[in-house]
Amino acid sequence: MAVMLETTSAPGHYGPYGGRFVPEALTAALDQLDREFRAAITDESFTRRLSELERTYTGRPNPLTLARRFSEHCGGATVYLKREDLNHTGSHKINNVLGQALLAERMGKTRLIAETGAGQHGVATATAAALLGLECVVYMGEEDTRRQALNVARMKLLGAEVIPVTTGSKTLKDAINEAMRDWVSTVDQTHYVLGTVTGPAPFPEVVRTFHQVIGREARAQILEAQGRLPDAIVACVGGGSNAMGLFSGFIDDPQVQLRGYEAGGSGVETGKHAARFAAGTPGVLHGARTYVMQDEWGQTVPSHSISAGLDYPGVGPEHAWLHDTGRATYTPINDDEAMEAFRVLCRTEGIIPAIETAHALAGVMRLGRELGPDSIIIVNLSGRGDKDVATAARWFGIDLGGVASDALSVEMAEGR
Amino acid sequence: MSRRLADVFAAAKSENRAALIGYLPAGFPDRDTCVDLISTMVESGVDAIEVGLPYSDPLMDGAVIQEAVERALIGGTTTDVVLDTVRRVTEAGAVAVVMSYWNPIERYGVQRFAANLAQAGGVGVITPDLTPEEAGPWIDASDEHGVDRIFLVAPSSTDARIATVVSSTSGFVYAASTMGVTGARTSVSTGAGDLVARARRQTALPIAVGLGVSTGEQAAQVATYADGVIVGSAFIRRILEATDSKAARESVAALAREMAEGVRA
Ligand SMILES: Cc1ncc(COP(=O)(O)O)c(C=O)c1O
Questions:
Q1: Where are the alpha helices (DSSP H) in A119-202?
Q2: Contact map slice: A 28-67 vs B, CB within 8 A
Q3: Is this prediction's ipTM beyond 0.90?
Q4: Cα three-residue angle A317-A321-A326, rounded to 5 degrees
Q5: pTM for this entry
Q6: Which of B46, B149, B162 is nearest to B97 (CA)?
């Protein structure tokens, strides 16, 4: 299977997926990125600097935590959590951002732009910009600036400009459109730090490469802890970067099942979801051919999810290929099932996960029952839930009363 | 024999001027008014029309075209409506090409789109987010149905890229005047002249300049070095600002005349 994946694709393609569907004006910048990326990852001074930052700044390696009490809710399977939530800035997103920020510096670019949904990628980009002394502008759908208000404040504290996007569905998809428009106009001085494994080549490969550290560490850690590979590895799939990072460490081990969980929103049958594999079809969005939620005319259909980071109508092209070849399996998880898993993890392990991550946790609760008590499963704990406290409190009807900060109360009062 | 893009550029050249190309999205401001306004453009001196195919994620377009396209989509403009618009304006005497992002064409079916466009009388397609590298099936389909295939070059294109792009292009080469999205600008980038000169060295095809042309004066300036001048956002802004369809028609006609004078200056 792994061999087939490599031999049937042209560069920048994954079978029929991927490629580069962009205005000609961006071709030169993508070629430059491709060249610099390839030079950098074989340049020892670059890789040394990146691993130094991972160790001393991000806090890697992060642990693989055995989730004893949570496992009881997963059919007794032995469940491990890969703790990306413990990274500086609170999610896996920093892995990719540090790599790309160093690339930007190497290309002599002085300005970083990014799109963000949940705000985690925006926060990570603002962080790297502050660290390297670069200018930073983050595009965020207006809808998401409201439901992830905490992260908007974080980005501003870090010195980034946050531009709310009011076009289209006012979510991640529209933030990407605006970031692309900015980039095409400012490409000489600007690097676009794309936040997930989507977009025109070489972005899916660049982002995956900088997240491979997740899979590398997890593989070594599970072998150390259990002396064998897991039966399955699990991740939530928005664009698919945390999943690709974890999957990459096990993709050549056919006995390890790769399981991705996408947002089922209110239910695939309601039309209010972000289930690209369950309800999408191959098409082109944001520069790549992949599975897209679209109507019969090829117009993008807006996605819906309680989690801003999974609320996206496209998905990384490598996932599309892993799906078609059967190497990975993708399943939708509805809002309510994700929130139940969120609650269970809080109560059993003392860890508040991001709502994106809660979709993976719900997945492992199902999968554990399927694979049984002798199985070992690793789930990527892609982020922590601080940003989601207001949403979760509202979902569970928790009265924040006097202890709530003003910001949180305002957020709650607005019904967001 | 119906006219093709080559005829349009040849005719302009024989008059020692640049051709004027106007853009309007199908279904904007509504289906019938769009057809009507295109006829007005042609009567007022526009030589060829780009009929825009409204798309939900127009990432090469600025605010003005985004607004027009969003309205067209809300009004129910589908690919079939676009093809019908092409048919109607062609019957009314226009030479029409379609300007479309790639996904709607792929979704419609590449062969089917080329066939139905040719059937409707459309003579070409401009594909702003498709480069020759990804265009294999489109190159076959457009050849088979005799539809011109217009790719873009940009100021950032290397000479080697320009060579690749023009060798896959027919009808005319679309030179994006500036690094940026569509929309009126106070001046047309000086880089445009350089880009046209670089493209000229690689092709005998006509070269038209688009992005940012909004006045007769700018059209005149571009016409000194290009074979065609493309105007989009400036027309749309006038339609958005007009109080009713009669005012829109008058305003569009006035701009078309100003531009037509510009390309003859
Ligand atoms: C914590 C967390 N997990 C997952 C995601 C989804 O992104 P991806 O699928 O690229 O990992 C996000 C995106 O914002 C996130 O913040």
A1: 120-132, 142-147, 149-157, 172-186
A2: 28-29
A3: yes
A4: 145
A5: 0.95
A6: B149
